[in-house]
């Protein structure tokens, strides 16, 4: 059993993926080929955002967004401690300080009630994460940001395709950033990402930053990076867009079924009623995670932990996070564990996973 089944996905879309890649091989424009603009137009239309800028990775998307907002040493960016390292890493890389605000225990997303108390005269942005595929409370976050004249960057690396009050993730704030890492709901076959905005000036800045700060060839108007997404990776995403809506429907169907079947046996995370999750991971909580994980492994069910150590407890961030209190993030980091999730997961395999999880959560339980 695969944790994420990319092989079946490729088998289902082999012809269109191969054809798209072959077009790139035929025209030979491997950097900024026609697929790049085509994908940007398609993704902008999909999200409803005015601008889409494809970039080399989801990490690069965050870096370029922060650079466009002119985040600099001494600035502070409010974010969540319960996320992949890249969220805080890009803030720190620019010399700014990630200010960690605790999360909601039932969703694992940033707790809006704690954001305003973390704002200081040095705060320059708010960076919420749509963890596991579910957007955070973006309207409330945007309202706080507007009150304090701050931009909001949605880290939507795990939530492309999700809805929040009828609007698409990545088009919910000043800037939205996503990832096309292979395991994401919409993934390429390497690294890739995209940035979304409705702000013309920010879009211009981010387009220049991703090509070494060039306004035009060899005219460098700002400091930039080599942050382009390859034409071949854009071609793969274009091919996968053909059945992306169906895959999202399947993810939601499978995620909802997991919750229905598992909630009798263990604690599952909540998806709020005014939004959807695309279930980049399907995550449950286990008080004795090590034992639970070992029992599932014995029964042939693969698992993963996203994430075992909250960011303010990571060695690289400990000094800048001294005195930070995020008890919910620490509790979740000790309990969360993700089960197999992908659009091609059969009901039979899901039933097997659920049965194994039920047994693993209560070793006394026997089938039937």
Q: Work out the radius of gyration.
A: 21 Å
Q: How many H/I helical runs?
A: 11
Q: What topology, given as strand order, has the largest sheet?
A: 1-9-8-5
Alpha-beta classification: alpha/beta
CATH superfamily of the largest domain: Type I PLP-dependent aspartate aminotransferase-like (Major domain)
Percent range of helical residues: 25-40%
Assigned CATH architecture of the largest domain: 3-Layer(aba) Sandwich
Q: Please report which band the strand proportion falls in: under 5%, 5-15%, 15-25%, 25-35%, 35-45% or over 45%.
A: 5-15%
Show unreliable segments: none
Instruction: Give the mean pLDDT.
Output: 97
Q: State the end-to-end distance.
A: 23 Å
> How many structurally independent domains?
2
The dominant shape is: globular
What is shown here, in short?
This protein has helices at residues 6-27, 34-47, 58-68, 86-93, 138-147, 200-209, 231-240, 244-262, 289-298, 327-335, 347-361, and strands at 51-55, 76-79, 97-100, 123-127, 153-155, 163-164, 167-168, 175-179, 193-197, 214-216, 219-220, 267-268, 282-285, 336-339. It has 368 residues and is α/β, with parallel strands linked by helices. The protein has two domains: 6-242, Type I PLP-dependent aspartate aminotransferase-like (Major domain) (Aspartate Aminotransferase, domain 2), CATH 3.40.640; 244-361, Aspartate Aminotransferase, domain 1.
């Amino acid at each position: 059993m695969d944790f994420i089944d990319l092989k079946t996905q490729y088998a289902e879309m082999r012809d269109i993926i191969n054809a798209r890649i072959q077009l790139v091989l035929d025209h030979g424009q491997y950097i900024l080929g026609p697929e790049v603009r085509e994908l940007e137009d398609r993704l902008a239309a999909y999200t409803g955002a005015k601008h889409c800028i494809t970039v080399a990775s989801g990490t690069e998307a965050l870096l370029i967004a922060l650079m466009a907002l002119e985040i600099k040493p001494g600035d502070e960016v409010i974010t969540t401690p319960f996320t992949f390292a890249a969220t805080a890493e890009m803030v720190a890389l620019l010399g700014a300080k990630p200010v960690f605000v605790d999360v909601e225990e039932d969703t694992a997303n940033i707790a809006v009630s704690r954001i305003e108390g973390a704002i200081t005269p040095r705060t320059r942005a708010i960076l919420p994460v749509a963890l596991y595929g579910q957007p955070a409370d973006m309207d409330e976050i945007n309202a706080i940001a507007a009150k304090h004249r701050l931009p909001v960057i949605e880290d939507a690396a795990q939530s492309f395709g999700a809805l929040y009050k009828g609007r698409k993730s990545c088009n919910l704030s000043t800037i939205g950033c996503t990832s096309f890492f292979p395991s994401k709901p919409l993934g390429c076959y390497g690294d890739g990402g995209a940035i979304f905005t409705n702000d013309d000036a920010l879009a211009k800045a981010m387009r220049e930053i991703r090509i070494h700060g060039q306004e035009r060839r060899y005219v460098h108007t700002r400091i930039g990076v080599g942050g382009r997404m390859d034409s071949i990776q854009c071609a793969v995403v274009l091919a996968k867009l053909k059945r992306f809506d169906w895959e999202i429907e399947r993810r939601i169907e499978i995620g909802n079924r997991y919750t229905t079947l598992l909630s009798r046996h263990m604690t599952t995370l909540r998806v709020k009623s005014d939004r959807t999750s695309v279930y980049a991971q399907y995550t449950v909580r286990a008080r004795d995670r090590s034992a639970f994980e070992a029992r599932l492994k014995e029964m042939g069910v693969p698992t993963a932990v996203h994430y075992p150590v909250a960011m303010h407890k990571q060695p690289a961030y400990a000094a800048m996070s001294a005195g930070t209190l995020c008890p919910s993030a620490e509790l979740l980091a000790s309990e969360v564990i993700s089960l197999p999730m992908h659009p091609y997961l059969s009901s039979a395999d899901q039933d097997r996973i659920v049965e194994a999880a039920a047994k693993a959560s209560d070793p006394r339980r026997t089938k039937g």
